[in-house]
Hints:
Layout (H helix, E strand, L loop, with lengths): L12 H15 L26 E5 L3 E3 L4 E2 L2 H7 L5 E6 L4 H17 L3 E9 L3 H8 L5 H7 L2 H4 L8 H9 L4 E5 L2 H10 L6 H4 L10 H11 L13 H30 L2 E7 L9 H9 L3 E9 L4 E5 L5 E6 L13 E3 L6 E3 L6 H6 L6 E5 L7 H9 L6 E8 L2 E8 L10
Parallel strand pairs: 4-7, 4-8, 5-6, 5-7, 8-10
Antiparallel strand pairs: 1-9, 2-3, 2-10, 11-12, 13-14, 14-15
Helix pairs in contact: 1-8, 8-11, 11-12
Amino acid sequence: MNHNPGKMISGSWQKGAGILLLTLILAVWLWPQNATGDRSLTLPLGPKKLRGQFLKVESGRLYSARKGKPVSFEAMVGEMKKARLIHVGETHDDLEMHEMQFRIIEALYRQDPNLAIGLEQVTVDLQPVLNRWVAGELDEESFLREIRWYVTWSFNYNYYKKIFDFARDHRLPVFALNAPRNLISKVRLQGYESLSEEEKQVIPPLDLSNQEHRLLLRTIFESEEIPPQMKGTNLETMFEALYRAQVAWDETMGRNAARAVEGSGRRLVVLAGSGHMLYGLGLNLRAYLLSRLPQVTVIGVRVAEDTGLKVSRGLADFIYGVKARDYPAYPAVSLNLKKVEGLNNLVVAARPTEALARTAGLEKGDVILSVADRQVFEVNDFRMMVAGYSWGEEIKIKVLRNGDVLTLSLKLDPSLLNNQK
């Protein structure tokens, strides 16, 4: 599997690998699509009356899982009329899924403008920045800098641009749902009880007892896509740690979604990785248990253009087939960067393993002097610059290595993604 070509990773393996791995597994779990043998799509979960029943999903078609047949987009939106929480899953670097999210938001706004948006992509400490964006106080560049988009989230902003613009243009409240990553890491490594009382105000108590949710996460975790280094003798301990982190995410986002609906009096469209919504067992379950409000979940699955994909009817209320593609719409570079005390410049923290950065010749210890003849001193700025380039373009990166100044060519060639070794 082409692991995460659309995400830029920061942080060390020891401190962040578990969280990044789980994000990868659950949020980018459908990229690229080759799900013929993906057991997570056909588990006997979800509403009991639908267990053991399946749909054959075709690319470009939308299905009502309850009815077990195709449905029009207009009919789906009509069925959402009574829902107060509308959960729309995504694979983070799939533009077609984001287009569906936008279409749903736009259609629901026409149906009833008393609407709000909830985001996994933003952590609760950054809510004031979202408020300023919606109020029209920030231009796009200032917004991306203040929210530190390419550090706190890192997927190309263009996947979400239409949604953010729509919210600002129509003054729709946007609510941050996620917990800061350092708190999720603390739960993963040390357990919930390690949190301070103040931190427990951010992450609610964890219910780790849901056996169906465990089955889902175990199935994904034990898939062949897990990196071999994560499958050693400590597999059980690793799973429990990652499961705590996943539940911490779901509990936090579910509670914040319920609070957003109740506090604003608006319907809420929740945008999050599909792994947080599958079979109604993730943040959507937590939001429902807290609010008891009617809700709907929509999930897309990638399907090869000329084939169908068998999925469980319990996967979501509505399921749509997304055309499988060989690479994401926007290039990104997986490059581990760090700051060193006494040095303004960024430093490459580890030898790149991802194809684009590796082929450019970047090495551990390289000091970044300039990118496209511009100096950059912050990780967010570096990633903002790289995100502005398209496939087929080339970026000149000047580095200092062992006293020598080198100019490297970062070629954004999608064919390189076929060689990840």
